[in-house]
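Case study 2.
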Amino acid sequence: MAETKEKSRKRRIWLWVGLAIAVICLGALIGGGIAYVDHLLSAPNHLSREDMPILDETDISQIQEEPSADWIEGGDLTFAENLASDSHVMNIMLYGSDQRPNTGGQYGNADAMVLLSIDTKHKKLKMTSFMRDLWVMVPGKREYRINTAYLLGGPRLSIETVEKNFGIKIDKYAVVDFQTFPQIIDTLGGITIDITQPEADYLNALRLTTEFQPGPCHMDGEVALDYARARKLKGDDFGRTQRHRTVLSTVIKQFRSANLSQIASTLEQIMPMITTDLTKEERAQMLPNAMEYMRYDVVEYRLPQDGTFRYATYYYKDTPMNVLVIEDMEQARKELRAFIYED
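Prediction:
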């Protein structure tokens, strides 16, 4: 009987020891998980728009100081009276830049400008491309191509330009420079995109190979960058903005098929390559819903729309440069609002 009690006592001791070990392990796992999530949320380079200086034109060698005799006249370049917004929609301006916005006070060029609208009401991810040759009024400056605003004031002035010209409230921004873009794509294991014969020919000529054929093409980071930035193809910059959106939508679809471990591993590598004004707290609020956002339908838009603009020319150091002038800016604002807010 005493032997039975002793065995029972030992079983209870081992049970408590086992439970204690389990609790310790669980605590370590939870603590480690919290630390890991905290690490992910802290990783992006945070830069507030208010901390971005706006440069003078004389500081930028690429900008003509005075208008030429052939300066463009006409076009409705008045600012929007109000900014549209909706609590169910978060507007994040995405930039592809050839330089990070916090290096030496210089912003570089933004060849890619895509507004990502996360619409939780209609469960859609909406991508709006802004053609870099759009002719707009830059706040505090004068008429310029829209990408000049980024050159002068980074995301701060670029976002203010988009807001005041098109009447849409921009909540946040994110920048990826063209040096780290290939690393992000490589981290994802590359992407597969259907390419046309002209696109295949362009990539082959650029790389002096005959590797690329029309149809599904698996691209590493460097090839994806060449594909996204290609301009000397049919459609010129219109085609290039389409390729920007194609790359983004492909990345989103690729995340849909990834498991939680793959996503966490990928985010750990990608996050330090992004500059944004999303705070740690805001990223924490978005993280639990990220997988749901990835399942939303992806829809696309472009400014200007076909049939709503005219070509015009201005001169930089006697070199003619084409720009796109929207004929009816108020109508363009209404159509953009309808796309983003569906009101």
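The mean pLDDT is 80.
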